[in-house]
Amino acid sequence: MNCNEIINKLRTTRNAEKDELVYLLDNITDDGREVLRRNAQEVAQEHFGNKIFIRGLIEISSFCKNDCLYCGIRRSNKNAVRYRLSREDILACCDKGYALGFCTFVLQGGEDSRFTDEMLCELIGEIKRRCPGCAITLSLGERSFDSLQKLYDAGADRYLLRHETAGKTHYEKLHPSEMSFDNRIGTLYKLKEIGYQTGAGFMVGSPYQTTENLADDLLFIKKLQPQMCGIGPFVPHKDTDFRDLEHGGLNLTLTLLSIIRLMNPDILLPATTALGTIDFRGRELGILHGANVVMPNLSPSDHRKDYALYDNKICTGEEAAECLNCLKGRMRSIGYEIVNSRGDYRQLNNKEK
Ligand code: SAH
Predict the structure, then answer these.
(1) Nearest residue CA, atom 18 of ligand 1?
(2) Contact 83 CB / ligand 1 (< 6 Å)
(3) What are phi and psi of 230, to 5 degrees?
(4) Is there a contact between 314 and 284 (Cβ–Cβ < 8 Å)?
């Protein structure tokens, strides 16, 4: 099969064989990419129209017990400035976001044991009380199954945990030996079982990544069927051993966004900050390639630069309202509109499928 035939197959059957995905990723030309893009945009528009969901990102801690080799806040980075938002800081971010129209708050952070189940459960309850109708998304890394269940019972709706790479050998090249690929994948299945709207995802162009790894990532998403999928280019951080490597490619990231959209028509797919970091119009391009979510930053501006997972991260000098207005303008410039709804996952019914 040639590239156009594989794109056709993806559009009509929502699937492809691994060797077809590898072939497509390795051989797609600019013309092919435009065909793929148009198909992905059409599928996204069939499902979401020109509406873009927003999630308010609150980066609650830069302390992390893990040592992921690519990450700027890995525990062994002695240069990282560590901060932890207080309960009151976090609530103030939510209040501000709610007033701006946000209905989803994403609490993201390093794996910081000071955020105990007890205090997170209380916090989740309080956010729900102050911001009626909002959704709470957690992105706090791997916690015990018991902890994840407690947080869900306390009212958390969604959980983002990128699998990072579906290749076990590749995973082990990006993480220290005390971290376990099997636990990461097992946690993702557990999150779904508990009832969370679950987000998986991976970095594009991460060190040692092969096209086969990427094909495995696409097939893993198809198999896990998460409600959300976050992908963005790997961007080097100056305090890691990967400092001199190139960042992941723009075209490759856009191609993968489009393929994910075709394979998973109803998935919630963000145009990520990392994509906006490697290209001035990265997030707009992401939307035009099939994404339907953006995640403006609601973190307090005095801590933003310290949540540095990678170098040159955008939006670190702005206020929440500025970030939102900037994204509203960017979306309008390509004919899309940011909406204030919660933007829950809605499964296509069988007829639509
Ligand atoms: N600690 C939590 C969430 C924070 S990290 C967790 O482990 O899930 C959020 C995401 O940032 C990670 O999943 C990873 O995919 C991404 N990330 C980390 N370092 C990065 C880098 N150097 N370039 C691009 N993305 C990176």
Answers:
(1) 71
(2) no
(3) -105, 120
(4) no
Determine how many CB atoms are found less than 10 A away from the CB of residue 239.
Answer: 17
Cβ of 232 closer than 6 Å to ligand 1, yes or no, is: yes
Whether 71 lines ligand 1, by a CB cut-off of 6 Å, is yes
Q: Whose CA is nearest to atom 19 of ligand 1?
A: 71
Could you state, in order of their start, the residue ranges of all structural domains in the chain? 3-344
pTM higher than 0.85? yes
Spacing, Cα 162 to ligand 1 middle (Å): 8
Compute the half-sphere exposure of residue 77: CA atoms within 13 Å on the CB side of its CA: 30
Verify whether ligand 1 is closer than 6 Å to residue 159 (CB atom): no
Residue 212 backbone dihedrals phi, psi, to 5 degrees = -65, -40
Overall CATH class of domain 3-344: alpha beta
pLDDT means per 10 residues, the chain with 353 residues, are 97 98 98 98 98 98 98 98 98 98 98 98 98 98 98 98 98 98 98 98 98 98 98 98 98 98 98 98 98 97 96 93 95 98 87 53
Using CA atoms, how far apart are residues 155 and 137, in angstroms rounded to an integer?
Answer: 10
- CB of 48 closer than 6 angstroms to any ligand 1 atom: no
